[in-house]
Write a structure and sequence with these properties.
The complex is a heterodimer of chains A (272) and B (285). With 272 residues, chain A is mainly α. Chain A is built from 11 helices and 4 strands; from the N terminus they run H-E-H-H-H-H-H-H-E-H-E-E-H-H-H. Chain A is elongated, with a radius of gyration of 26 Å. Chain A starts with 10 loop residues before the first helix and ends in a 7-residue tail after the last helix. Chain B is globular and about 50 Å long. The chains are: A mainly alpha (272), B alpha/beta (285).
Chain lengths: 272, 285
């Protein structure tokens, strides 16, 4: 008489158990030994076969994070970055079908979990902002024809709107300063950030994409305030009013037109 | 050997390649003599920027097929509505010859392993996956193809993978993307007979064939897509062509990607194996 076979676990419970073993995530489930459903043989045991998937899971996701934060990885070194990535994935496993979203929470997580190394979260914030605008929707940009053909008597009503592919990101000055030195092909690395108790001065950066290239540059507080007004739907006249209050009409007009010219040349304003 | 005489459900596009970032510029600027390109759907779901421009430029000159890795058709998590909406939008913009994904699952409890995990080949899983394929085909308004995965473990089940896949294709009325390297790898890893696997495939439902390189890891073979197609896989490919006739065939090479000319040379090898196998097929007929 054959021994009675235990009822086969459901598809859902097999998948939950297997995924838990592969990713290391503790799922809120009745415990099921995934290995009990896996056929081992002379080539490899069930545990060895599971280990292949667990290894590939970590390698694949660490590699994806490295591609999104190449400068952070270079600054930290491969081993330290891999450990950091594993810690992050334990808290923020992927819940999106695209790996594109994998690193979205990393800068914020770094800022809270590694507060002593603010330079790392600062660098991660800039890398993520650049990665985030990389493939956002294209849209027609405003050209110089728009202000040239807009009725001069109503010029203050010129509508301004930022393209979607932009971000404002606050970083340490050291992040901005070390950016070029951290390119993958740079010969020498800058000094690793120290856990100084003195906070590094901050700078506000504008990150945006023009055509297929991603750029960033520092913003002075006044231009940042003006772009905040643009983001809120203000028209050109509101920018002039803001500047007039601080500098008088003549300086205000010159500065406002200079900004408008720069924003259009940079492809930062959407066509209307 | 039996030779299927039924009409294929999918057109033969010829010989193609996967469109990879390393070759974007070369393909757009030189329009190489490749019959078609396969693109990874998820890499182009962003609405703009360089990837989308490259894709649109390639589509102007070549037939394109969409190949996904995140449908997770075998998962017991609900189908991902926003993902399907993005896939549908991409397909409407691109008008691909077809859309494919894998016979696998990758998510549980909302967590995505970003892997092609094997199913237990049970009646429960078959009914589950068939129902989901029908839902996806309804949502996309077209027949999809599912690819046999490489696997490194087998779960307790009621049937062999080839029986599961053939019955699924019949029951859900979907196509099959036959990855010959995956058959080779899984057959080695689990002690299957790869020719038995091919013999079970419904010829008319095979719309595309994948070829790729793999690696050895201890006693197991790993589907790494990082090298040349090995002789055993070429011979298995010849067996497939002899059984099913010529099918849209492509080389997958995703890691340590070589110069484009190397991939073209590998496609040339595929052409020679196909010609030889078609000769055998005519002789047998």
């Amino acid at each position: 008489m054959r021994p009675e076979r235990a009822p086969r676990p459901s598809l859902a419970s097999v998948q939950a158990a297997l995924l838990s073993r592969i990713t290391g995530q503790e799922l809120d489930l009745p415990v099921l030994g995934a290995a009990s459903s896996i056929r081992g043989d002379a080539r490899a045991s069930a545990e060895e076969r599971l280990a292949v998937y667990a290894f590939m899971y970590r390698a694949r996701l660490v590699e994806a994070l490295e591609s999104q934060f190449p400068r952070l990885a270079r600054l930290m070194g491969a081993d330290a970055f891999s450990e950091l990535a594993a810690d992050y994935l334990a808290v923020w496993p992927s819940r999106h079908p695209s790996l594109r979203e994998l690193g979205r929470a990393l800068p914020r997580w770094l800022a809270t979990e590694r507060a002593e190394a603010r330079a790392l979260s600062s660098l991660a914030s800039l890398e993520w902002a650049r990665a985030d605008v990389y493939d956002l929707a294209d849209e027609p940009a405003m050209t110089l024809d728009a202000p040239r053909t807009f009725p001069s008597e109503r010029f203050g009503e010129l509508p301004l709107r930022l393209i979607a592919a932009h971000r404002f990101v606050e970083v340490d000055r050291a992040t901005e300063a070390s950016w070029d030195a951290l390119t993958p092909d740079a010969a020498e690395l800058p000094d690793a950030p120290s856990a100084s108790p003195e906070p590094d001065p901050h700078v506000m950066l504008l990150v945006w994409r023009q055509e297929i290239a991603v750029y960033h540059r520092a913003l002075e507080p006044e231009e940042r305030a003006a772009l905040a007004l643009v983001s809120a739907g203000s028209r050109f006249g509101t920018i002039c009013d803001m500047l007039s209050a601080a500098h008088g009409d003549e300086t205000a007009a010159a500065r406002a037109f200079a900004w408008l010219s720069t924003w259009i040349a940079d492809g930062l304003l959407a066509a209307f | 050997m039996t030779i299927a005489g039924t009409t294929p459900l999918f057109p033969n596009l010829g010989r193609g390649l996967g469109l990879r970032r390393e070759h974007y510029q070369h393909v757009v600027e030189n329009r190489p003599a490749v019959d078609w390109f396969e693109v990874i759907s998820e890499n182009f779901m962003g609405a703009g920027g360089n990837p989308r421009r490259v894709l649109e430029a390639v589509r102007r000159d070549y037939p394109v097929v969409l190949h996904g890795v995140s449908l997770s058709i075998g998962s017991t998590d609900p189908l991902d509505g926003p993902y399907l909406a993005e896939l549908d939008a991409l397909a409407r913009a691109l008008e691909p010859a077809w859309i494919s994904d894998h016979l696998c699952w990758g998510t549980a409890h909302g967590i995505n392993a970003h892997d092609l995990l094997p199913l237990p080949y049970t009646e429960e899983a078959l009914a589950h996956v068939a129902g989901r394929v029908e839902m996806v085909q309804e949502r996309l308004g077209r027949r999809i193809l599912l690819e046999n995965p490489s696997s490194y473990l087998e779960l307790d089940g009621d049937m062999a993978e080839h029986e599961f896949l053939a019955e699924l294709a019949r029951r859900a009325d979907c196509g099959i993307l036959l990855d010959v390297n995956n058959v080779f790898v899984s057959a080695h890893n689990h002690g299957w007979d790869p020719h038995t696997y091919l013999a079970a495939m419904p010829a008319e439902r095979i719309g595309q064939i994948h070829l790729a390189g793999h690696s050895e890891e201890g006693a197991l073979l790993i589907d790494t897509h990082d090298g040349y197609v090995v002789d055993g896989v070429w011979r298995l490919y010849a067996d497939a062509v002899e059984r099913f006739g010529a099918r849209s065939t492509m080389i997958e090479w995703d890691a340590q990607v070589p110069a484009f000319e190397e991939l073209e040379a590998e496609l040339g090898r595929a052409a020679r194996w196909e010609t030889m196998a078609l000769g055998e097929r005519r002789d047998a007929a």
